[in-house]
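Weekly structure sync, notes
Attendees: PL, DS, HV (note-taker this week)

Item 1: Ionic transporter y4hA
DS walked through the input record. Source organism listed as Glycomyces paridis. Sequence as pasted into the shared doc:
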Amino acid sequence: MTTAKRSPLLSWTVIAPILGIAVLAATWGRESSSLMVIIAAIALGATVLAAVHHAEVVAHRVGEPYGSLVLAVAVTVIEVALIVTVMASGGHDASTLARDTVFAAVMITTNGIVGIALLVGALKYGTTLFNPEGSGAALATVATLATLGLVLPTFTTSESGPEYSTSQLMFAALASLVLYGLFVFTQTRRHRDFFLPVTPTGVVTEEEHADPPSGKTALLSLVMLMVALVGVVGLAKVESPAIKAGVDAAGFPPSAVGVAIALLVLLPESIAAVRAASRERIQTSINLGYGSAMASIGLTIPVIAVASFWMEGPLMLGLSSTEIVLLGLTMVVSVLTIVPGRATRLQGGVHLVLLAAFLFLAINP
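Item 1 (cont.): predicted structure, written out as tokens:
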């Protein structure tokens, strides 16, 4: 006697985003009670996990390095929408929210995602292997984008504060888009092999992967990924007052709000990176980490630059001296990690300590 196969529509990964949208509809534009805030937080967590699953299904269907690109862009859509939404609501901290969130995203991706992936991979396999050509190219792009978008505004003299003039902002936005587009072309076309996973036996080709999901399954996951992203953005907006209230109650500086947003929106990629590392696919984890950092700067800054024309107040992008030191140290350590093409648990630990230093100084500047 055979049992009926359960419909994929009854999977929790399909139900969770739909319930997330339902909770969003019930809470949007209303004064939420403590119970509803908790329910929204639970729905948000479940929707994020569902988004991870559907992004991985789509990624498996299209193959590497397109899969990492899909997830990086999807997460950046969440980040951009959330930043613009919160900035549009105003407040004395709106002018620095984009800077705080993007910088937090860069530190979390380059130190957190890469660090935990290296540590997990090294603990399981001894030494982690990756492609230094692809990883180095990605790191160089991240460093250039971070300098253009976050460091130079501190030192320009056209404006009195750590901000660009209109023409400078437009140049930085255009340069960011060009760099990001050039990297995507390199990653997916001309030198795609530089970004494929590496094992002791060589580069993993797409033929070595497990059978990809069917077109119907991938299409369902693509639709549900879009639904999940809408739910995550909306529920994060619902939760943002609670996040701000929690930050104020704890006595943390306003920049901690940006850190909280970055931690939230990068949760899907962090989970995906750890899963890839546990399967000896460190290159995929690095693609996710550096790809997210690139997308966070290369896509967020241009969108925020355009949105700033319709929003009141200045757009402060320049980092403080402490943040510049942390960013510079992160880039130096990352170069030393990437150049050999292999890493141990020590490198993973160093990056995680840098992340811990950033998080500590974010709440205790």
